[in-house]
Amino acid sequence: MKILIYTHSLAPQVGGVETIVGHLARGFAVVHSSGATSAPEVVVVTMSPPGKMDDAALAFRVVRQPTMIKLVKLMRAADIIHLAGPAFLPLVLGWLMRKRIIIEHHGFQAACPNGQLFYEPNPSLCPGYFMAGRHRECLRCNAKLGRTTSLKLWLLTFPRRLLCKLATANVAPTAWLDGILKLPRTTCIPHGLPIASIAKIPTDLAAPPTFAFLGRLVGTKGASILIGAAAKLIQQGCIFRVRIIGDGPDREILQQKVDLAGLGPHVQFLGYLPDERVEEVLADVTAVVMPSLAGEVFGLVAAERMLRGQLIVASDIGPLREVVGDAGLLFPPGDDDALMHCMRQVLNDPLLVSELRRKASERAIRLFDQELMVRRHLMFYGGLIHCGE
Question: Would the pTM of this model clear 0.85, i.e. be above it?
Answer without folding.
Answer: yes
